[in-house]
């Protein structure tokens, strides 16, 4: 059965949309990722205009992040002070990203920008994940345990130092602000929560304890994606509520299935599968950018 999406102005199979929402929810439950970096390109591949896919995908991430943050809050694994610094940067970044998005949309280049950003970011992230996962799998087979060591780098000499007790850190607020800023821009332009960039940055750049990274990341992502959705709805009118509702229904079901399946599989194998999936989506988007469309057209003046 097809359903007409009024904002996207396309008719799409409900079953297909439920499958996309359920599939991304399944990945969220299995791998512990928000899924925004897969949700938006999958919607584009389903025929949803990129502008609508970005804005509506941010809404999906907001709901998923809220659910995950609540679970971490109960376990006391959220650094709210660090989350607020990241949030300030994220709100500034999302405001910049929405304005840039609107500008490019008026120029008619937003669809190309979104696709190019996804090809670049998914390619980099997928390759890094695959290499790291294969190395982790080899270490686990050899029985080698990797330990992270705290290092003092250039950012410890920056001003505006703050003490983040939950993360056991005393560092400048500038690096967390910049990380949040970058994630905010990505959320507005690409419709992602930015967790696939923020989580590694919080661990390896800021030196945060792994136990509080995920919960703190979800806290920031929840508010940034909510603000991004609101700004897109006001400035660009690209949030399709009906599409968001269908995706949420599929996502809730898929997440519950993924949470139950995750303990049955090895972490290294799961990360390899996720990396391969990311690279497949990246390759498909890249091919679509290169090949000639079935119905090419030109806006040039006809010759007389």
From TrEMBL:
Its main location: membrane. The chain crosses the membrane at residues 12-39, 83-104, 110-131, 169-197, 203-227, 271-291. It is a multi-pass membrane protein. InterPro entries: TM_pro_TauE-like, TSUP/Inactive_protease-like. Pfam families: TauE. It is found in: Cell membrane; Membrane. The keyword Protease does not apply. It comes from the Bacteria. Keywords: Cell membrane, Membrane, Transmembrane, Transmembrane helix. Belongs to the 4-toluene sulfonate uptake permease (TSUP) (TC 2.A.102) family. This is Probable membrane transporter protein.
């Amino acid at each position: 059965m097809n359903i007409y999406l009024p904002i996207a102005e396309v008719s799409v199979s409900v079953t297909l949309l439920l499958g996309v929402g359920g599939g991304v929810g399944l990945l969220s439950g299995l791998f512990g990722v928000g899924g925004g970096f897969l949700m938006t390109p999958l919607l584009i591949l389903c025929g949803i205009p990129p502008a609508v896919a970005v804005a509506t995908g941010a809404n999906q991430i907001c709901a998923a992040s809220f659910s995950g943050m609540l679970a971490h809050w109960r376990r006391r694994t959220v650094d709210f002070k660090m989350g607020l610094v990241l949030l300030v940067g994220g709100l500034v970044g999302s405001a910049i990203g929405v304005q840039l998005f609107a500008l490019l949309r008026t120029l008619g280049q937003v669809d190309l920008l979104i696709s190019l950003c996804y090809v670049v970011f998914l390619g980099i992230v997928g390759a890094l994940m695959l290499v790291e996962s294969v190395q982790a799998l080899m270490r686990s087979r050899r029985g080698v345990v990797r330990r992270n060591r705290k290092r003092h780098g250039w950012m410890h000499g920056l001003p505006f130092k703050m003490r983040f007790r939950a993360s056991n850190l005393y560092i400048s607020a500038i690096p967390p602000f910049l990380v949040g800023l970058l994630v905010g821009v990505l959320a507005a332009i690409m419709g992602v929560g930015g967790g696939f960039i923020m989580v590694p940055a919080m661990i390896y750049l800021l030196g945060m304890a792994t136990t509080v990274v995920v919960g703190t990341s979800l806290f920031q992502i929840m508010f940034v994606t909510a603000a991004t959705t609101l700004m897109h709805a006001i400035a660009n009118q690209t949030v399709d509520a009906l599409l968001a509702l269908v995706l949420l229904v599929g996502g809730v079901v898929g997440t519950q299935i993924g949470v139950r399946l995750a303990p049955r599989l090895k972490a290294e194998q799961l990360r390899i599968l996720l990396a391969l999936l990311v690279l497949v989506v990246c390759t498909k988007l890249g091919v679509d950018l290169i090949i000639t469309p079935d119905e090419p057209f030109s806006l040039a003046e006809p010759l007389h």
